[in-house]
Amino acid sequence: MQAVILAGGLGTRLWPLTKTVPKPMVPIAGTPYLEHQLRLLQQQSITDIVLLTGYLSEQIEEHFGDGSDLGITVHYSRETTPLGTGGALRQAGPLLAESFLVIYGDSYLPIQYADVLNTLADSSATGVVTVYDNQEEDTGVTNNISLDENGFIAKYKKDAADDPSLRFVEAGVLAFRRSVLDLIPAGQVSLEQQIFPQLIAKRELFGHVTRQRFYDIGTPERLERIADQLT
C-alpha cells in the first residue's frame, strides 16, 4: 500500500510558528507532527510513502531522509512554485502506484487505512473521501459533504456556510486510482475545487464513513487539542 502525504502548505494560520518551520514539522510532544503520522502508517505496514513538499521542504527532507530510520521508504516530489493539491499530485505522477492513499499533512485520523483502499477497490469510483459526522463529536470544522443513497458524494462545498444538506465533513484521508491524474491539467490545481466537482458529476467519488473523529493542526487551538491525543 502506498500513502501520499500533502506536506507543502504554508501554514499561514499558525504564523509566526510556521515562519521558520513547515507546518508538518511543528513539534507535538517533542516530535514533528509528520513523524507521528508516519509512525502510524508504519504500524499498519504502509511503508511506501510519497511526500509532496514545498515550503521549507529541505527541513522535511533532511529530517526523514529515505525513511529507513522509521522502517519506511520515502520518496519526495518537491514544488518549486505553488501547484495546489491537484497540481502537486500531478507532478508526483511517476512515483504513484495504481491506487494510493492521499493524506493531508496537517490532519490526523487514527483508523485502519487499508479499509479506505478496500472501499475504493470494491467500488466503481475513481476516488474515495473519508467522511465524518460531526454529530458524533464536533470537530470544529463545518460540514462540507453530502452523500446520496448509494454512498456516492452528491455535494461538496469547501468552507461552506451552514447547509443542512451537508451532513458530513471531509476527514483528511482519501484514496484514488491512478486514472485521476488524467483529469488534472498542468499548473496550479485544487483537488477539492477543480477535480472533486468533475468526479461528483460522473458519480465517481465515493464516501467512506468513519465514526472516528479526526484532529488537525490548522490553528493554535487545534494544535493544543491534538497534542492531548499524541502524548
TrEMBL record:
Domain Nucleotidyl transferase as annotated: residue spans: 3-229
Endpoints of the signal sequence: none
CDD domains cross-referenced by the UniProt entry: NTP_transferase_WcbM_like
Coiled-coil zones: none
Top-level lineage group: Bacteria
Gene3D superfamilies hit by this protein: Spore Coat Polysaccharide Biosynthesis Protein SpsA, Chain A (3.90.550.10)
Name recorded for this polypeptide: Nucleotidyl transferase domain-containing protein
Organism: Novipirellula rosea
